């Protein structure tokens, strides 16, 4: 798996305070089955996190640390760009330090009360400049997660949709869990990230979420969200956008995937034939 949203660089935002905490996070991720992570530290955020390190230097340090611990574990550069007043000046002032691994993809964050209109405006501004916006943790924006129509409009406008893995395992309540599962089943989601911040709180874990997707959708869908789409993004390739599915399609799909349903229908049919035909 590849985690496209994680605050793993120490001393630059509200992620780990030290290299030791970052090391613990790397160990947790590796043991959880994660083999790559995008270091999406905050950019253009309204809060002052009291940074004690420079992103590039701290990133280089943990990359070296990770290669010694686990040679197959990769850390990629990135950012979580906060969209607020004045952001257009940054967009019009290259070079950019907020894209994901030097690609044209960028992870976007908004205020929790951001409306569809505000997010849509930002998607437009980024796309006309050649960026591919990924909307981070839509589970934080009620005007988005509560409206499938708004989600699909954003995807049609050029945005990708990311949710936080912890929402699928009940960490943010039953309502959020059931809503995110519904959006998954209907094909509205493009990426799932941990939004990990530390080894203690908001842990950088994805395995349980992967299992949930495998169970309620399919193993192939889990691989698409946790492996294939992140890999395509990091290599600069086009990321697959799955078409949304109607209730009827979901019902037929569930019948096809359930041997118990098929067997039950067969038995009932045989019984009816026996009694009605005799």
Overall description:
With 278 residues, the chain is of the alpha/beta class. The chain has two domains: 2-244, TIM Barrel, CATH 3.20.20.140; 246-277, no CATH class. It is built from eleven helices and nine strands. The chain has helices at residues 19-31, 55-69, 87-91, 116-127, 142-145, 148-156, 174-185, 207-216, 219-234, 247-257, 259-277, and strands spanning 2-6, 36-39, 42-43, 74-77, 80-82, 105-109, 132-135, 160-164, 191-193. The chain has a six-stranded parallel sheet. Helix 1 (19-31) packs across helix 2 and helix 8 packs across helix 9. It is globular, with a radius of gyration of 21 Å. The relative contact order is 0.13.
CATH superfamily of the largest domain: Metal-dependent hydrolases
Instruction: State the helicity in percent bands.
Output: 40-55%
Helices and strands, in N-to-C order?
EHEEHEEHEHEHHEHEHHHH
If you average the pLDDT, what whole number results?
92
Number of domains in the coordinates? 2
Overall morphology = globular
How far do the termini sit from each other? 57 Å
Total of DSSP H or I helical runs spanning 4+ residues = 11
Characterize the main sheet. Answer: 6 strands, parallel
Beta-strand share of residues: 5-15%
